Amino acid sequence: MVLSTLKTYHIIILLKSSHQEKQQWQFLFIVMIFCILGYLITFVLFIYKLLDIIPILTGLVFFVGSLFIFMSVNIYHSTLGNIIKKKEKHQLEKKELEKHLAEFKHSQSQLIHHEKMISLGQMVAGVAHEINNPISFIHGNIEHLDNHIHILLFLLQLYQQEYPHVTPEIKKIISENEIEFVQGDLPKLFSSMKSGTERIREIVQLLRTFSRIDESEVKQVDIHAGIDSTLMILQHRLQARPKYQKIRILKKYGNFPKIECYAGQLNQVFMNILCNAIDALEEKNNHLSYQEIIDHPNIITITTNVNKNQQLEVSISDNGSGIPPSIQKHIFEPFYTTKPIGKGTGLGLSISYEIIRKHHGTIDFISTPEKGTEFIIQIPIHQ
User: Fold this and answer.
1) How many CA atoms lie within 13 A of 191 on its CB side?
2) Tens of pLDDT along 8-40?
3) How far is CA 224 from CA 269, 304, 338, in A?
4) What is the pTM of this model?
5) Are 120 and 213 in contact, with CB atoms under 8 Å apart?
């Protein structure tokens, strides 16, 4: 009892709870002091053999002891309850803080990534513009030069017909310079130059389409042009390379009008999903022999249509290694990646998820290990 009283006094000194709780402990301390005094008085009376008073004091001591036990249980229960409530409150506050911190980091990463993509879009648009001006000049002049060359060749041919007998000096020059070969090869050269400039202009147009990342307004766009421009950007990864076979692209485009969207942002979604599909195919190839890769070629299938709910539906599937079931629930989480350090940030799909949500749409996937993965995007055709 004395030790309990001392511990109670120590608790009162250290207690930083509410005023009411401290008062309860102080009252308990006073009761304990009375109990100790009661025991001392009983002990003294017992020594001096004052038997008549002992039963009364004993009853009193037992009553006070019972009261002490009852109050102790209530006070301990109250204090323990307060401690548990405060602990639960602290845990909730901690979880809330961690949630806000994660949201802040995610928003910060999205902002940084978006700024990078805007810078990239501006750079690509600038490069495309700078290339477009001189190539348009060259392409336009090739048209006129081709006409001039045809006139000169026709004149040369006519001259040879009218004057078949030439001087020995002219005959020598014709022989040394293979004029007949030049006459046949020159139109082919101009045709290939014209095809080359047309291809450059096409690439420039695709770059300008892809560089719509910094456009902040909803516009009506040809979704197929956006997909094609993204495929053009990734062309170097789709072609055959020393360690990788060519990736075949199957396009199953539906026939529907332009849709309203943030064109550049959707291009970014297509880029992220296609990059993941290419990575999956390359990862699968690392575990196959050359003959197995030949027998099971790499294929990415892109399907577009408008469903019965008047939503654009874009499906991008691959026949790669698939996503393991253990990580499928994490793939839209920011910073989650299974790629080596330096190859992936874990932001691609989480940013894609936010972009599709901004379009009031959905993005989901179906994946079967060792068979492949299909991502399905659905957004309204009118925003």
Assistant:
1) 6
2) 555 555 555 555 556 665 666 676 676 666 666
3) 14, 8, 31
4) 0.52
5) yes
Phi, psi at 246, each rounded to 5°: -65, 140
Whether the Cβ atoms of residue 334 and residue 109 lie closer than 8 Å to each other: yes
Of 262, 264, 266, nearest in space to 217 by CA: 262
Which positions ≥6 away from 45 have C-beta within 8 Å?
A: 53, 54, 57
Q: Is 155 part of a structural domain of the chain?
A: no
Residue 346 lies in a domain: yes
Last residue of a domain, which of 78, 102, 126? 102
Residues 352, 272: contact at Cβ < 8 Å? yes
Cα gap 306→221, rounded to integer Å: 15
Count other Cβ atoms within 10 Å, centred on residue 156: 13
Question: 355 in a domain, yes or no?
Answer: yes
Chain-centre distance for alpha carbon 165:
76
Integer Cα distance of 143 and 197 in angstroms: 11
Q: How many domains in the chain?
A: 2
| Owning domain of residue 78 | 2-102
